[in-house]
Design a protein that fits this description.
Elements (H helix, E strand, L loop, with lengths): L3 E4 L2 E5 L13 E5 L8 H14 L4 E6 L4 H6 L7 H5 L7 E4 L2 E4 L5 H8 L9 H5 L8 E6 L5 H10 L1 E7 L2 H16 L7 E8 L6 H14 L12 H5 L7 H4 L4 H16 L1
């Protein structure tokens, strides 16, 4: 069956996003991933996508996590999304804001679909195949689950760039090292390169934040982004009203940090 992209109101063109055609045809792709839970992946994926869209970039945010946290963030049904696309079924893209649409995960169905990917000889290329006709946008950003499974490798293979959020604790820093090593050593991940290591949950009052930041800078050098996302109550509050940090508290330092990240990602991508 032909994949069909819909928005909330109905059918859009088969196999296409509902944006106007991209004249340059170049789509920038980015996955947000680290094999450690709770480091700010979803928060980063949401605010980076929303901020790029506010700047006039046409953004598709894909929830590649069966937990469906992007759907929870915006209070939308996680159906008709990535799971269905991989199964060749009809899907709907949910238009959230101007220039900003979401492909939901498909909910827990994505667990089953992910397991089935191993049956294919080219099991790491199934997301690439499914996305081949999604071109009418400027950015495709993937929010990944915190696990190295076949679905994550599919996303890394397709997106080619990965941003790794590291919260300021020892286990998170270790996970980042393991994640980078695994990506570099895994032949099936194609040309995937690490675009940046993003420090998150930074609190300058704590010695641990300063130690971990030093540690990851010593280890990763220039891969560590200049942007540091500080621990910020407003960032934590924003999902409860389905708002991005820019809508919830545009003058917060959480918003300022994510604006810095957008500048840096636009420059690095
Ligand atoms: N900079 C921040 N300051 C305060 N709270 C934050 C910050 N970033 C994220 N949070 C909060 O921390 C929690 C975990 O963040 P998030 O869901 O983005 O992590 P995650 O890496 O996607 O987790 P998972 O691995 O489970 O998918 C959320 O409640 C979020 O609102
Ligand atoms: Mg998440």
């Amino acid at each position: 069956m032909q994949p069909v992209f819909r928005d909330q109101t109905g059918l859009v063109k088969p196999g296409r996003c509902d944006f106007a055609p991209n004249p340059t045809g170049t789509v920038k792709k980015l996955s947000i991933f680290v094999a450690k839970g709770g480091t700010g992946k979803t928060t980063t994926a949401v605010n980076l996508s929303a901020g790029l869209a506010e700047r006039g970039k046409r953004v598709v945010l894909v929830d590649a996590d069966p937990q469906g946290c992007v759907s929870s963030y915006f209070n939308i049904e996680p159906t008709g999304g990535l799971a269905e696309l991989l199964l060749g079924e009809q899907i709907k893209l949910v238009r959230l804001r101007n220039n900003f649409v979401v492909m939901t995960s498909g909910g827990t169905r994505l667990w089953d679909v992910s397991g089935k990917l191993n049956q294919f000889p080219d099991r790491f290329k199934q997301v690439s195949k499914a996305f081949v006709r999604l071109r009418d946008c400027d950015y495709i950003i993937f929010d990944c689950a915190p696990s190295f499974d076949v679905l994550t490798y599919n996303v890394l293979y397709y997106a080619e760039n990965v941003l790794i959020p590291v919260s300021m604790d020892y286990l998170s820093a270790l996970s980042a090292v393991e994640t980078v090593n695994a990506i570099r050593n895994f032949k099936g991940s194609g040309n995937c390169s690490v675009l940046g290591i993003l420090p998150t949950f930074y609190d300058k009052r704590t010695r641990m934040s300063r130690i971990i930041l030093r540690m990851i800078k010593d280890h990763f050098g220039e891969l560590v982004t200049e942007t540091i996302i500080r621990t910020n109550t407003q960032i934590n509050e924003a999902p409860s009203s389905g708002s991005t940090i820019f809508e919830h508290a545009s003058y917060s330092y959480g918003a300022a940090d994510y604006l810095n990240l957008i500048d840096e990602m636009e420059a690095r991508l």
